[in-house]
UniProtKB/TrEMBL annotation:
<keyword id="KW-0479">Metal-binding</keyword>
<feature type="transmembrane region" description="Helical">
    <location>
        <begin position="9"/>
        <end position="26"/>
    </location>
</feature>
<dbReference type="InterPro" id="IPR001128">
    <property type="entry name" value="Cyt_P450"/>
</dbReference>
<dbReference type="GO" id="GO:0020037">
    <property type="term" value="F:heme binding"/>
</dbReference>
<keyword id="KW-0812">Transmembrane</keyword>
<keyword id="KW-0349">Heme</keyword>
<comment type="similarity">
    <text>Belongs to the cytochrome P450 family.</text>
</comment>
<keyword id="KW-0408">Iron</keyword>
<dbReference type="GO" id="GO:0005506">
    <property type="term" value="F:iron ion binding"/>
</dbReference>
<dbReference type="InterPro" id="IPR002401">
    <property type="entry name" value="Cyt_P450_E_grp-I"/>
</dbReference>
<dbReference type="InterPro" id="IPR036396">
    <property type="entry name" value="Cyt_P450_sf"/>
</dbReference>
<dbReference type="GO" id="GO:0016705">
    <property type="term" value="F:oxidoreductase activity, acting on paired donors, with incorporation or reduction of molecular oxygen"/>
</dbReference>
<protein>
    <recommendedName>
        <fullName>Cytochrome P450</fullName>
    </recommendedName>
</protein>
<dbReference type="GO" id="GO:0004497">
    <property type="term" value="F:monooxygenase activity"/>
</dbReference>
<keyword id="KW-0472">Membrane</keyword>
<keyword id="KW-1133">Transmembrane helix</keyword>
<keyword id="KW-0560">Oxidoreductase</keyword>
Length: 519
């Protein structure tokens, strides 16, 4: 088809569109519930279907999903997009639960894989079967309880202290600080050291290239003709991919060198902080190498997928969290008071906060900071780091609500819209109200994966939820005890096009050091 387009220009294009319309629109079967075709969103066009909706800017697309959720409620509705198999949008938790529990039926499928292949290849997010199992096992080892203890006791205090030094020097020089960059730097240092034994930074060439490539991959999900438009507009994308691939192979080569160097295991037990961190350093990439063998490209795909899964999502969640807090001073105060009380109860001197010898990490655990966790969860609700999910039916099936899905049907759900459902969250669903997460006994309310699917669910549930929660509580509590933040921008912030939810133009802030004597 592509050759035809190149050789015969306009004629090729016309034939191509006829083919598309015939194959994907006129031939497309209607999806039914109890024998009745599903309803379609208003303004669905005869041939273009809902294709134009998906070409819109992402904020408009988010709003479209929210409006549909408010109009259809739990009812599953049909969407059609030229070049795609028939699709449905789901909002009903019982359907979501069915998807989570039947991952053999609902796979990423060709639709997702074709678009994300250039960036993730066979990395865990795209992999099925044995390849998925091997990467999941390697990840479970990396995120074991003992490694997470090294994260809380050694790695996070170390990198947090470095970040605080950086913020303090900006404060002294009255410089504006981009908090998105700050959080990205913390998670880059953490993941770089613990997962790959590498020094990684938020503003290195690799990160910039990865961000650009992720934006282009997302556009592929919105633009049905991406494979044509990219031949014209894709030169920066191809350069970015080359940088990302080179970086991925670099991680693997380093790890292979380390493997050879440490072929003779040391018999000395090093129980210092540095020693404990060194035992974890590179543990993810080493487990991936052990699990996947020496296929360098595959190991590099796996490593890069873990990097975006863990580093970007967590940094973005923290960014939106601080964005919401700056608009809600009482919530900031409550976090500060909660953290301060905890330090007092445990006899920890507040003056040592943020130093290399800071021991607050031992007490700043998610379970001890319910209000801080409530704020984090409320930020995840309003700004889910993975705002959309797409799956494809590997075989025909029927949802619990009676919707029959033929093989290859595409299932879409928008976390952005589900998390703003007035039916599920009340009339104030659009508002930031962390208290909705606190039960009468003061503990955090637990929601099932299908009610609050930000970390996915079932066998493929997010492996790093605990890691993200630990990082969030420590970082938020420490930062709010030490500093006051006010926005250095006007109006609202929005996200930029990406597979995840980075904030467009960052989160520039004025920061003031709190007088710790007076706290
Ligand atoms: C707030 C932070 C985070 C959020 C909201 C989040 C959310 C998610 C979601 C929605 C998925 C399913 C993605 C899909 O398959 O389409 C996922 C998968 C995954 N996440 Fe997270 N994640 C977070 C942090 C982390 C961290 C810190 C790690 C650690 C490295 C991590 C590792 C993974 C892995 C390995 C998977 C793939 C699981 C599988 O397919 O078996 N995530 N995450």
């Amino acid at each position: 088809m592509t050759a035809l387009l190149h050789d015969n220009g306009l004629l090729g294009l016309v034939l191509f569109f006829i083919f598309v319309i015939y194959y994907f629109v006129l031939r497309a079967p209607n999806i039914c519930r109890n024998g009745v075709p599903l309803r379609k969103p208003p303004n669905t066009l005869p041939i273009a279907g809902n294709g134009l909706v998906f070409l819109q800017d992402r904020q408009k697309l988010f709003s479209w999903f929210v409006n549909c959720e408010r109009q259809f409620g739990l009812e599953t509705f049909q969407i059609t997009v030229p070049t795609l198999h028939p699709g449905v949008v789901i909002n009903d938790p019982s359907n979501l639960d069915y998807v989570f529990k039947n991952e053999g039926i609902f796979a990423k499928g060709d639709f997702v894989k074709q678009r994300s292949w250039d960036l993730f290849g066979n990395g865990i997010i795209n992999a099925d079967g044995d390849l998925w199992k091997a990467q999941r096992k390697a990840g479970s080892h990396f995120l074991s309880a003992s490694n997470l203890r090294v994260l809380t006791d050694v790695a996070l205090p170390r990198y947090l202290s470095r970040t605080i030094d950086h913020i303090e020097s900006c404060v002294k020089n009255s410089r504006i600080v981009d908090l998105q960059l700050v959080f990205h730097e913390i998670t880059s240092l953490l993941m770089g050291k613990m997962a790959y034994d590498m020094e990684m930074h938020a503003d290195d060439d690799f990160t910039m290239a990865f961000e650009h490539a992720s934006g282009v991959i997302t556009e592929r999900f919105q633009n049905p003709l991406w494979f044509i438009t990219e031949t014209i507009t894709g030169s920066r994308f191809r350069k970015s991919l080359a940088i990302v691939r080179k970086f991925g192979l670099g991680i693997v080569n380093n790890a292979m060198d380390d493997q050879q160097k440490s072929a003779e295991p040391s018999t000395q037990l090093d129980d210092t902080d540095g020693g404990r961190l060194n035992t974890v350093s590179g543990s993810l990439i080493q487990s991936l190498l052990a699990a996947l063998g020496s296929q360098q490209k595959l190991v590099a795909d796996a490593a890069l997928t873990y990097l975006t899964a863990g580093r970007d999502t967590t940094a973005q969640a923290l960014t939106w969290c601080l964005y919401l807090l700056m608009r809600n001073k009482p919530a900031m105060e409550k976090i500060k008071n909660e953290a301060q009380e905890l330090l007092k109860t445990n006899g920890i001197d507040i003056q040592q906060l943020g130093s290399e010898s800071d021991t607050s990490s031992a007490v700043f655990a998610p379970a001890s900071l319910p209000y801080t966790m409530a704020v984090f969860y409320e930020a995840l609700r309003l700004f889910p780091p993975i705002p959309f999910e797409i799956r494809e039916c590997e075989q025909a099936t029927t949802f619990p609500d009676g919707t029959f899905l033929p093989e290859k049907a595409v299932i879409v759900w928008s976390l952005w819209a589900i998390n703003r459902s007035k039916r599920a969250w009340g009339e104030d669903a659009d508002e930031f109200r962390p208290e909705r997460w606190i039960a009468e006994d003061g503990k955090l309310i637990n929601k099932s994966a299908s009610e609050f699917p930000v970390f996915y669910g079932g066998p493929r549930t997010c492996l790093g939820k605990r890691m993200a929660e630990i990082i969030a509580t420590q970082v938020i509590a420490t930062m709010l005890l030490m500093f006051e933040f006010t926005p250095a921008y006007e109006g609202k912030r929005v996200s930029k096009t990406s597979l995840t939810l980075p904030m467009k133009d960052g989160l520039p802030c004025h920061i003031k050091r709190r007088d710790m004597e007076c706290i």
